[in-house]
Specification:
Blueprint: H1 5-11, H2 17-32, E1 38-40, E2 43-46, H3 51-65, E3 74-77, H4 94-109, E4 134-136, H5 138-148, E5 154-155, H6 157-166, E6 168-170, E7 184-188, H7 195-209, E8 214-217, H8 224-237, E9 244-245, E10 262-264, H9 266-275, E11 284-287, H10 294-304, E12 312-317, H11 319-328, H12 330-336, E13 340-343, E14 358-361, H13 364-374, E15 377-380, H14 383-392
Parallel strand pairs: 2-3, 2-4, 4-5, 7-8, 7-10, 8-9, 11-12, 11-14, 12-13, 14-15
Antiparallel strand pairs: 1-6
Helix pairs in contact: 1-2, 2-6, 3-4, 5-8, 7-8, 7-9, 10-12, 10-14
The chain binds FE3-S4 cluster (F3S).
């Protein structure tokens, strides 16, 4: 790879150990993927924050980097394994909390904003069209590339952190025009209304086209909550880092998608819904995957007003969004019902294995990881259905 003087100096260790290690990671990646050079990035989102996933080896790695590592660009963090301020209310142990705080402190020491959310675009990390960035967290990557039109590969935690500590990323993949063109045409027949409809669409398209970049026709409208749900779902069930929806996403194709179009019917969505619906009533209800918007909190507050939940209920949310909800009066209504606003964390990255048997959610992504990571049975439904189940303890 061709390196600039500054990049070479980082690689030679002239800017310290953390920058050297980071540049080594980026050069190795660049060589694997055939990048000719590095490009500057202006925004980073670092995943791999939960102590549950990192363990002591991950914590040691971060503490070592934090000795002399300092981020060069705006960098935010993915959710941690607990609410950083009010972890006791979520049933997190003292030992776990101690380690989790050490992890977050190591990131903060490097100058990373401990935002602990998978919706950085709701809390001030909002790249613009065609901006080069380095994000990890598959749903946020898909949102950045597709909805915002920014450019990022699907980074892992270490490569995103390396980009933050150097301000650079290897120039390959999603950073190049030629790799952002649609590879398959998808025609959506049914009308979509709810957030789970979009999650089911992500499931259906992901299963049919895998990680190919789809150009999607037939989706007439989508709000930001539906798009964030779709991004999380298509990235989970298919693996793509980018999609285009005609009339909705901003990037225009430079060449047409080739091959036979793929059709998505009402039966495909029904099959997706069935695949994400196990037997039994939920003993855990969890909304906010990806982290809830202010609008979602408003709706949840309306649904919970004057009621009490019968089962453990979490709404995962970025702390600054919760603080706005406090001011708007939504948080009080939600918390008066017994439901918990889980800041900085979520139902997947918190250590919940063995605590619950069946989770109800409006998120297709949460269904996948709830099953895979926490061994939960799952049920997908609208926020209305989920809150009804939270209040009655019954799924209907
Ligand atoms: Fe975010 Fe956790 Fe879902 S990190 S996308 S709420 S699995």
């Amino acid at each position: 790879m061709e390196l600039t003087k500054d990049e070479q100096q980082m690689l030679d260790g002239k800017h310290g150990n953390a920058a050297k290690k980071s540049m080594e990671i980026l050069v190795a990646l660049g060589e694997i993927y055939g990048a000719k050079n590095m490009i500057p990035v202006s925004s980073v989102q670092v995943a791999g924050v939960s102590y549950h996933n990192l363990g002591d080896a991950g914590l040691e790695y971060l503490e070592d980097l934090s000795k002399d590592g300092k981020v060069r660009v705006l960098t935010t963090l993915n959710p941690a394994g607990m609410d950083l301020e009010d972890w006791r209310k979520l049933g997190i142990s003292e030992d776990f909390a101690k380690k989790q705080l050490l992890v977050v402190n190591a990131f903060a020491k490097m100058g990373i904003i401990p935002s602990c959310t998978c919706t950085p675009y709701f809390v001030g990390n909002l790249p613009h069209f065609s901006e080069h960035i380095a994000w990890s967290e598959s749903s946020a990557v898909c949102f950045a590339n597709s909805v915002l039109g920014a450019r990022t590969n699907r980074e892992g935690g270490p490569s995103a952190l390396a980009a933050a500590l150097t301000g650079k990323t290897p120039n390959y993949g999603m950073h190049l025009d030629e790799n952002r063109q649609p590879q398959v045409l998808v025609k959506v027949k049914p009308k979509l209304k709810t957030i789970p409809d979009f999650g089911e669409l992500g499931y259906a398209i992901g299963k049919k086209v895998g990680n190919k970049i789809p150009l999607i026709l037939g989706v007439k409208a989508a709000n930001i909550e539906q798009l964030k749900s779709f991004c999380a779902s298509i990235a989970t069930y298919g693996g793509t880092a980018l999609f285009h929806i005609k009339g909705i996403t901003p990037e225009r194709a430079k060449k047409p998608a080739g091959g036979e179009p793929v059709e998505i019917t009402a039966a495909d969505l029904e099959e997706a819904r069935k695949a994400m619906t196990d037997e039994g009533d939920p003993d855990f209800v969890s909304l906010g995957c990806p982290h809830a918007s202010l609008n979602e909190l408003k709706r949840i507050a309306e649904l919970l007003k004057g009621k009490k939940v019968a089962v453990e209920t979490w709404i995962a949310v970025a702390r600054p969004v919760k603080e706005l909800a406090d001011k708007a009066g939504y948080s009080k209504i939600i918390e008066d019902s017994g439901a918990k606003l889980a800041c900085d964390t979520c139902m997947v990255v918190a250590p919940l294995k063995g605590r619950f048997k069946c989770m109800a959610t409006d998120s297709a992504k949460a269904c996948f990881y709830g099953r895979g990571t926490n061994n939960f049975k799952v049920k997908i439904g609208t926020a209305e259905q989920c809150i009804k189940a939270a209040v009655t303890g019954k799924w209907s």
